From TrEMBL:
Keyword S-adenosyl-L-methionine: no
GO MF, one example: leukotriene receptor activity
Signal peptide: none
Protein species of origin: Oryzias melastigma
Membrane topology: Multi-pass membrane protein
Parts forming coiled coils: none
Name assigned to this protein: Cysteinyl leukotriene receptor 1
Higher taxonomy: Eukaryota, Metazoa, Chordata, Craniata, Vertebrata
Transmembrane portions of the chain: 29-49, 61-82, 102-129, 190-214, 235-255
Any one GO CC term of the record: plasma membrane
Domain of life: Eukaryota
Length: 344
Protein backbone atom coordinates (compact mmCIF):
# COMPACT_ATOMS: atom_id res chain seq x y z
CA UNK A 1 0.00 0.00 0.00
CA UNK A 2 1.28 3.44 -0.84
CA UNK A 3 1.63 5.70 2.11
CA UNK A 4 2.89 9.25 2.48
CA UNK A 5 3.08 11.89 5.22
CA UNK A 6 0.07 10.94 7.28
CA UNK A 7 -1.06 12.67 10.44
CA UNK A 8 0.43 10.77 13.35
CA UNK A 9 -0.15 12.63 16.53
CA UNK A 10 -0.17 16.25 17.52
CA UNK A 11 3.46 16.87 16.61
CA UNK A 12 3.09 16.33 12.86
CA UNK A 13 3.83 20.02 12.10
CA UNK A 14 7.22 19.68 13.80
CA UNK A 15 8.34 17.08 11.27
CA UNK A 16 9.78 18.32 7.96
CA UNK A 17 8.00 17.06 4.87
CA UNK A 18 9.64 14.40 2.71
CA UNK A 19 7.65 15.55 -0.34
CA UNK A 20 10.76 16.84 -2.17
CA UNK A 21 12.60 13.58 -1.52
CA UNK A 22 9.56 11.53 -2.52
CA UNK A 23 8.85 13.48 -5.72
CA UNK A 24 12.47 13.34 -6.88
CA UNK A 25 13.00 9.63 -6.16
CA UNK A 26 9.67 8.44 -7.59
CA UNK A 27 9.80 10.54 -10.76
CA UNK A 28 13.43 9.57 -11.49
CA UNK A 29 13.17 5.89 -10.63
CA UNK A 30 9.85 5.31 -12.40
CA UNK A 31 11.24 7.00 -15.52
CA UNK A 32 14.21 4.60 -15.57
CA UNK A 33 11.96 1.57 -14.93
CA UNK A 34 9.63 2.69 -17.74
CA UNK A 35 12.45 2.88 -20.30
CA UNK A 36 14.18 -0.38 -19.36
CA UNK A 37 10.89 -2.20 -18.77
CA UNK A 38 9.42 -1.21 -22.14
CA UNK A 39 12.59 -2.04 -24.08
CA UNK A 40 13.38 -5.30 -22.27
CA UNK A 41 9.88 -6.76 -22.15
CA UNK A 42 8.89 -5.38 -25.55
CA UNK A 43 11.91 -7.04 -27.19
CA UNK A 44 11.22 -10.27 -25.27
CA UNK A 45 7.60 -10.35 -26.45
CA UNK A 46 8.65 -9.68 -30.04
CA UNK A 47 11.04 -12.64 -29.95
CA UNK A 48 8.61 -14.92 -28.12
CA UNK A 49 5.69 -14.18 -30.46
CA UNK A 50 7.80 -14.45 -33.63
CA UNK A 51 9.09 -17.87 -32.51
CA UNK A 52 5.78 -19.16 -31.14
CA UNK A 53 6.00 -22.33 -33.22
CA UNK A 54 8.69 -23.50 -30.77
CA UNK A 55 6.19 -23.20 -27.91
CA UNK A 56 6.69 -24.95 -24.56
CA UNK A 57 5.19 -24.53 -21.06
CA UNK A 58 8.15 -22.34 -20.05
CA UNK A 59 7.62 -20.29 -23.22
CA UNK A 60 3.94 -19.73 -22.27
CA UNK A 61 4.91 -18.51 -18.77
CA UNK A 62 7.52 -16.14 -20.20
CA UNK A 63 4.97 -14.57 -22.57
CA UNK A 64 2.50 -13.99 -19.74
CA UNK A 65 5.19 -12.61 -17.43
CA UNK A 66 6.31 -10.15 -20.12
CA UNK A 67 2.68 -9.10 -20.77
CA UNK A 68 2.18 -8.51 -17.06
CA UNK A 69 5.32 -6.36 -16.91
CA UNK A 70 4.28 -4.30 -19.93
CA UNK A 71 0.83 -3.73 -18.43
CA UNK A 72 2.46 -2.29 -15.32
CA UNK A 73 5.18 -0.31 -17.10
CA UNK A 74 2.70 1.44 -19.39
CA UNK A 75 1.00 3.01 -16.34
CA UNK A 76 4.24 4.30 -14.79
CA UNK A 77 4.34 7.50 -16.92
CA UNK A 78 1.18 8.57 -15.05
CA UNK A 79 3.13 8.28 -11.79
CA UNK A 80 6.11 10.11 -13.28
CA UNK A 81 3.81 12.96 -14.33
CA UNK A 82 2.15 13.08 -10.91
CA UNK A 83 5.39 13.31 -8.92
CA UNK A 84 7.02 15.65 -11.48
CA UNK A 85 4.06 17.98 -10.83
CA UNK A 86 4.88 17.80 -7.11
CA UNK A 87 1.88 15.69 -6.16
CA UNK A 88 -0.82 17.23 -8.34
CA UNK A 89 -3.19 14.76 -10.09
CA UNK A 90 -4.96 15.93 -13.26
CA UNK A 91 -5.75 12.66 -15.06
CA UNK A 92 -9.12 11.76 -13.55
CA UNK A 93 -10.38 9.23 -11.01
CA UNK A 94 -10.47 6.21 -13.35
CA UNK A 95 -6.79 6.41 -14.32
CA UNK A 96 -5.86 6.96 -10.69
CA UNK A 97 -7.58 3.74 -9.65
CA UNK A 98 -6.46 1.63 -12.60
CA UNK A 99 -2.77 2.63 -12.42
CA UNK A 100 -2.58 1.67 -8.73
CA UNK A 101 -4.44 -1.56 -9.49
CA UNK A 102 -2.15 -2.61 -12.36
CA UNK A 103 0.97 -2.14 -10.22
CA UNK A 104 -0.25 -4.73 -7.72
CA UNK A 105 -1.65 -7.08 -10.36
CA UNK A 106 1.82 -7.10 -11.92
CA UNK A 107 3.49 -7.60 -8.54
CA UNK A 108 1.55 -10.77 -7.72
CA UNK A 109 1.38 -12.04 -11.30
CA UNK A 110 5.19 -11.84 -11.40
CA UNK A 111 5.49 -13.80 -8.17
CA UNK A 112 3.09 -16.52 -9.31
CA UNK A 113 4.51 -16.82 -12.83
CA UNK A 114 7.99 -17.21 -11.32
CA UNK A 115 6.56 -19.88 -9.03
CA UNK A 116 5.02 -21.71 -11.99
CA UNK A 117 8.30 -21.51 -13.92
CA UNK A 118 10.20 -22.88 -10.92
CA UNK A 119 7.78 -25.80 -10.53
CA UNK A 120 8.04 -26.52 -14.27
CA UNK A 121 11.85 -26.59 -14.11
CA UNK A 122 11.71 -28.73 -10.96
CA UNK A 123 9.52 -31.37 -12.63
CA UNK A 124 11.69 -31.36 -15.76
CA UNK A 125 14.86 -32.09 -13.78
CA UNK A 126 13.69 -34.15 -10.80
CA UNK A 127 10.87 -36.10 -12.50
CA UNK A 128 11.75 -36.03 -16.22
CA UNK A 129 9.54 -39.02 -17.16
CA UNK A 130 6.40 -37.89 -15.31
CA UNK A 131 7.05 -34.35 -16.55
CA UNK A 132 6.05 -35.32 -20.10
CA UNK A 133 2.47 -35.97 -18.95
CA UNK A 134 2.20 -33.53 -16.05
CA UNK A 135 3.47 -30.43 -17.87
CA UNK A 136 1.98 -29.57 -21.26
CA UNK A 137 1.42 -26.36 -23.18
CA UNK A 138 -2.37 -26.53 -22.73
CA UNK A 139 -2.05 -27.11 -18.98
CA UNK A 140 0.37 -24.20 -18.66
CA UNK A 141 -2.13 -21.96 -20.44
CA UNK A 142 -4.81 -22.97 -17.94
CA UNK A 143 -2.41 -22.20 -15.09
CA UNK A 144 -1.77 -18.73 -16.58
CA UNK A 145 -5.51 -18.04 -16.79
CA UNK A 146 -5.84 -19.04 -13.13
CA UNK A 147 -2.96 -16.77 -12.13
CA UNK A 148 -4.44 -13.80 -13.99
CA UNK A 149 -7.87 -14.32 -12.41
CA UNK A 150 -6.49 -14.82 -8.90
CA UNK A 151 -4.14 -11.81 -9.07
CA UNK A 152 -6.83 -9.58 -10.58
CA UNK A 153 -9.44 -10.50 -7.96
CA UNK A 154 -7.05 -10.39 -4.99
CA UNK A 155 -5.77 -6.95 -6.05
CA UNK A 156 -9.29 -5.53 -6.48
CA UNK A 157 -9.24 -3.71 -3.08
CA UNK A 158 -6.78 -1.26 -4.68
CA UNK A 159 -9.60 -0.19 -7.03
CA UNK A 160 -11.53 1.11 -4.03
CA UNK A 161 -9.25 4.08 -3.38
CA UNK A 162 -9.14 6.70 -6.13
CA UNK A 163 -8.30 10.39 -6.29
CA UNK A 164 -9.17 12.70 -3.42
CA UNK A 165 -8.83 16.40 -2.67
CA UNK A 166 -6.42 17.53 0.02
CA UNK A 167 -8.55 19.83 2.20
CA UNK A 168 -5.60 21.92 3.38
CA UNK A 169 -4.30 22.76 -0.13
CA UNK A 170 -7.37 22.02 -2.30
CA UNK A 171 -5.10 19.96 -4.61
CA UNK A 172 -6.28 16.67 -6.12
CA UNK A 173 -4.13 13.75 -4.97
CA UNK A 174 -3.59 10.16 -6.08
CA UNK A 175 -1.39 7.17 -5.06
CA UNK A 176 -1.65 8.19 -1.42
CA UNK A 177 -4.47 7.57 1.05
CA UNK A 178 -6.50 10.35 2.67
CA UNK A 179 -5.73 11.47 6.20
CA UNK A 180 -5.08 8.70 8.68
CA UNK A 181 -8.20 7.08 10.12
CA UNK A 182 -7.67 4.65 12.95
CA UNK A 183 -10.72 2.54 12.07
CA UNK A 184 -9.15 1.65 8.70
CA UNK A 185 -6.02 0.13 10.19
CA UNK A 186 -7.51 -3.27 11.15
CA UNK A 187 -8.86 -3.72 7.62
CA UNK A 188 -5.56 -2.69 6.03
CA UNK A 189 -3.61 -5.00 8.33
CA UNK A 190 -5.92 -7.91 7.50
CA UNK A 191 -5.48 -7.31 3.75
CA UNK A 192 -1.74 -7.04 4.26
CA UNK A 193 -1.53 -10.39 6.06
CA UNK A 194 -3.58 -12.10 3.36
CA UNK A 195 -1.27 -10.68 0.69
CA UNK A 196 1.80 -11.51 2.76
CA UNK A 197 0.86 -15.16 3.25
CA UNK A 198 -0.74 -16.05 -0.08
CA UNK A 199 1.04 -13.55 -2.33
CA UNK A 200 4.57 -13.78 -0.95
CA UNK A 201 5.39 -16.36 1.75
CA UNK A 202 3.59 -19.36 0.23
CA UNK A 203 4.98 -18.87 -3.31
CA UNK A 204 8.46 -18.19 -1.90
CA UNK A 205 8.41 -21.41 0.16
CA UNK A 206 7.29 -23.37 -2.93
CA UNK A 207 10.13 -21.83 -4.94
CA UNK A 208 12.69 -22.65 -2.24
CA UNK A 209 11.44 -26.26 -2.04
CA UNK A 210 11.74 -26.59 -5.82
CA UNK A 211 15.26 -25.18 -5.82
CA UNK A 212 16.40 -27.49 -3.04
CA UNK A 213 15.11 -30.44 -5.07
CA UNK A 214 16.78 -29.16 -8.26
CA UNK A 215 20.16 -28.61 -6.60
CA UNK A 216 20.09 -32.01 -4.88
CA UNK A 217 19.26 -33.75 -8.18
CA UNK A 218 21.98 -31.89 -10.08
CA UNK A 219 24.59 -32.69 -7.43
CA UNK A 220 23.67 -36.38 -7.46
CA UNK A 221 24.27 -36.68 -11.22
CA UNK A 222 27.51 -38.01 -12.60
CA UNK A 223 29.96 -35.58 -14.19
CA UNK A 224 29.13 -36.88 -17.68
CA UNK A 225 25.40 -36.45 -17.15
CA UNK A 226 25.91 -32.89 -15.93
CA UNK A 227 27.74 -31.96 -19.12
CA UNK A 228 25.00 -33.41 -21.27
CA UNK A 229 22.15 -31.64 -19.53
CA UNK A 230 21.78 -28.01 -20.64
CA UNK A 231 18.63 -27.81 -18.51
CA UNK A 232 20.82 -27.95 -15.41
CA UNK A 233 22.68 -24.79 -16.43
CA UNK A 234 19.43 -22.98 -17.19
CA UNK A 235 18.02 -24.12 -13.86
CA UNK A 236 20.97 -22.69 -11.93
CA UNK A 237 20.66 -19.39 -13.78
CA UNK A 238 16.94 -19.26 -13.02
CA UNK A 239 17.59 -19.98 -9.32
CA UNK A 240 20.05 -17.08 -9.09
CA UNK A 241 17.84 -14.56 -10.95
CA UNK A 242 14.57 -15.46 -9.18
CA UNK A 243 16.18 -15.41 -5.72
CA UNK A 244 17.82 -12.06 -6.45
CA UNK A 245 14.47 -10.68 -7.62
CA UNK A 246 12.82 -11.83 -4.40
CA UNK A 247 15.62 -10.51 -2.20
CA UNK A 248 15.92 -7.13 -3.95
CA UNK A 249 12.35 -6.44 -5.02
CA UNK A 250 9.62 -8.47 -3.31
CA UNK A 251 11.04 -9.12 0.19
CA UNK A 252 11.90 -5.50 1.15
CA UNK A 253 8.47 -4.31 0.01
CA UNK A 254 6.43 -6.92 1.92
CA UNK A 255 8.52 -6.62 5.08
CA UNK A 256 8.39 -2.83 5.07
CA UNK A 257 4.65 -2.74 4.33
CA UNK A 258 3.94 -4.96 7.32
CA UNK A 259 6.18 -2.93 9.62
CA UNK A 260 4.69 0.34 8.41
CA UNK A 261 1.08 -0.69 9.05
CA UNK A 262 2.00 -1.68 12.60
CA UNK A 263 3.96 1.54 12.99
CA UNK A 264 0.83 3.54 12.14
CA UNK A 265 -1.01 2.00 15.10
CA UNK A 266 1.71 2.95 17.58
CA UNK A 267 1.39 5.99 19.84
CA UNK A 268 4.15 8.43 20.76
CA UNK A 269 6.38 7.90 17.75
CA UNK A 270 9.19 10.41 17.27
CA UNK A 271 9.67 12.66 14.27
CA UNK A 272 12.86 10.90 13.17
CA UNK A 273 11.07 7.55 13.28
CA UNK A 274 8.25 8.87 11.13
CA UNK A 275 10.60 10.36 8.54
CA UNK A 276 12.68 7.17 8.37
CA UNK A 277 9.55 5.06 7.95
CA UNK A 278 8.13 7.33 5.24
CA UNK A 279 11.40 7.31 3.29
CA UNK A 280 11.59 3.52 3.52
CA UNK A 281 8.11 3.38 1.95
CA UNK A 282 9.45 5.30 -1.07
CA UNK A 283 12.54 3.13 -1.48
CA UNK A 284 10.81 -0.25 -1.12
CA UNK A 285 7.93 0.67 -3.46
CA UNK A 286 10.50 1.65 -6.09
CA UNK A 287 12.23 -1.70 -5.63
CA UNK A 288 8.90 -3.50 -6.00
CA UNK A 289 8.22 -1.71 -9.31
CA UNK A 290 11.73 -2.60 -10.51
CA UNK A 291 10.80 -6.27 -10.84
CA UNK A 292 9.70 -5.39 -14.39
CA UNK A 293 13.36 -4.73 -15.22
CA UNK A 294 14.65 -7.97 -13.64
CA UNK A 295 12.34 -10.28 -15.60
CA UNK A 296 14.05 -9.81 -19.01
CA UNK A 297 17.19 -11.24 -17.40
CA UNK A 298 15.17 -14.35 -16.61
CA UNK A 299 14.15 -14.73 -20.26
CA UNK A 300 17.65 -14.21 -21.62
CA UNK A 301 19.68 -16.31 -19.21
CA UNK A 302 17.31 -19.13 -18.28
CA UNK A 303 14.64 -19.26 -21.00
CA UNK A 304 14.56 -22.40 -23.11
CA UNK A 305 16.56 -21.48 -26.22
CA UNK A 306 15.78 -17.77 -25.78
CA UNK A 307 19.16 -16.68 -27.12
CA UNK A 308 18.88 -19.14 -30.00
CA UNK A 309 15.41 -17.68 -30.70
CA UNK A 310 17.01 -14.22 -30.78
CA UNK A 311 19.70 -15.43 -33.20
CA UNK A 312 17.07 -17.14 -35.34
CA UNK A 313 15.01 -13.95 -35.47
CA UNK A 314 18.08 -11.92 -36.48
CA UNK A 315 18.94 -14.40 -39.23
CA UNK A 316 15.37 -14.38 -40.52
CA UNK A 317 15.36 -10.57 -40.57
CA UNK A 318 18.71 -10.51 -42.39
CA UNK A 319 17.53 -13.03 -44.99
CA UNK A 320 14.32 -11.06 -45.58
CA UNK A 321 16.38 -7.91 -45.99
CA UNK A 322 18.66 -9.61 -48.56
CA UNK A 323 15.62 -10.88 -50.48
CA UNK A 324 14.15 -7.38 -50.62
CA UNK A 325 17.49 -5.97 -51.82
CA UNK A 326 17.77 -8.67 -54.49
CA UNK A 327 14.29 -7.82 -55.76
CA UNK A 328 15.07 -4.13 -55.90
CA UNK A 329 18.28 -4.50 -57.94
CA UNK A 330 16.60 -5.61 -61.22
CA UNK A 331 14.09 -2.80 -60.86
CA UNK A 332 16.89 -0.25 -60.36
CA UNK A 333 18.94 -1.54 -63.32
CA UNK A 334 15.84 -1.64 -65.54
CA UNK A 335 15.03 1.91 -64.56
CA UNK A 336 18.58 2.96 -65.42
CA UNK A 337 18.43 1.33 -68.86
CA UNK A 338 15.12 3.01 -69.65
CA UNK A 339 16.62 6.35 -68.65
CA UNK A 340 19.60 5.86 -70.98
CA UNK A 341 17.31 4.87 -73.84
CA UNK A 342 15.29 8.06 -73.36
CA UNK A 343 18.45 10.19 -73.41
CA UNK A 344 19.75 8.59 -76.63
Amino acid sequence: MEQHNQSMGDNETECPSIDDFRNMVYSTFYSVVTVFGLVGNGLALLILFRTQRQSSPFHVYMINLALSDLLCVMTLPLRVSYYAKRGRWEEGDFLCRISSYFLYVNLYCSIYFMTAMSVTRFLAIVYPVQNLQLVTVNKSRLVCVGIWIFSSVSSSPFLMSGQHVDKSTNITKCFEPPEHESDRLPKLQLLNYIGLVFGFLLPFLIILACYVGIVRTLLSRTQTARRQQATGVRAIRMIVIVLLTFLLSFTPYHVQRTLHLHFLSRQGTTCSERIAMQKSVVVTLCLAAANSCFDPLLYFFSGEGFRSRLSSLRQTTRINSLHRTAKLRPMISESGENHQADVS
